Amino acid sequence: MSDQKVVLITGASSGVGQNTARLLSQKGHKVFGTSRNPAGAEVIPAIKMLGLDVRSDDSVTACVKAVSEKEGRIDVLVNNAAYELAGALEETSIDEARAQFETNFFGVVRMVKAVLPLMRKQRAGRIINVGSLSGVSSIPFMGIYSASKFALEGYTDALRMEVKPFNIHVSLTEAGFLKTPMMNKRQIATEQLEEYEPWRQRAFNAMRDHEQKAPGPDLVSQMILSIIASKKPRLRYVIGSQAKFATRLQWLLPEGTYEKGKRSTFRLDE
């Protein structure tokens, strides 16, 4: 592939997606961002915004077709579109859980299935799935969100091995807490059980405090830029000191000790 890549980024109207689109464009790549409401997204002259709902097969097919017909290729797919669903697992309805997976997991599956025929034909491509530390170490009261990111871990691992013969490289980012607009758009499970109230609220307050002190989206955007530039990108990229520290502790500490520390992090035993 040439130095300039044709990049398609889902969920590029704000946060990590928008920041990544802007950075890659500044570095000379031809960037297509997507949003369910592209007209409402900030106008960045060098970035072409397209309408896309990753929950829809037809929308995904039309978006990928539009980019491939205009450019003749797609070199990099960044699967970033996602949202956070919070609440106790007992409070979360099946419909809410299903909707979470439709965006966070099956949205990725749809995008990958749509771009792979083109990348296989090119015999080249990069797929970067934006995962999370919560896909390695779950967050209490964000269990379905964590489950969607755990699913992305297994999917990405298998995909990487399957498409390697076609010179398609697959990677996954795993960032911890970030200060982005996503934290203000968190959806809360509709049912609220009084029995969970004290622990749910403590966990929500702890998340908010950690996010307020966390780095911004540039940390992930810079990593995505380096993955694209790498000749031999790895499968997993743990991003940020908090994520790296938590990952090491999970490997090193006895299970009970690690769980006690995590309960403390989310103030569940106060």
The level 1 CATH classification is Alpha Beta
Query: Low-confidence parts, pLDDT < 50 over ≥5 residues?
Result: none
Number of strands: 9
Output the radius of gyration: 19 Å
**What is the CATH topology descriptor?**
Rossmann fold
The residue fraction in helices comes out at 40-55%
Strand order of the largest sheet: 3-2-1-4-6-7-9
Looking at this structure, what is the CATH superfamily? NAD(P)-binding Rossmann-like Domain
Corresponding CATH architecture: 3-Layer(aba) Sandwich
Overall 3D form: globular
Helix and strand run: EHEEHEEHHEHEEHHEHH
Oligomeric form: single chain
Biggest pleated sheet: 7 strands, parallel
Topology (elements, then pairings):
Elements: E1 6-9, H1 15-26, E2 30-35, E3 47-51, H2 57-71, E4 76-79, E5 85-86, H3 94-104, H4 106-122, E6 125-130, H5 143-163, E7 168-175, E8 187-188, H6 197-213, H7 218-229, E9 236-239, H8 241-252, H9 255-265
Parallel strand pairs: 1-2, 1-4, 2-3, 4-6, 5-8, 6-7, 7-9
Helix pairs in contact: 1-7, 2-4, 3-5
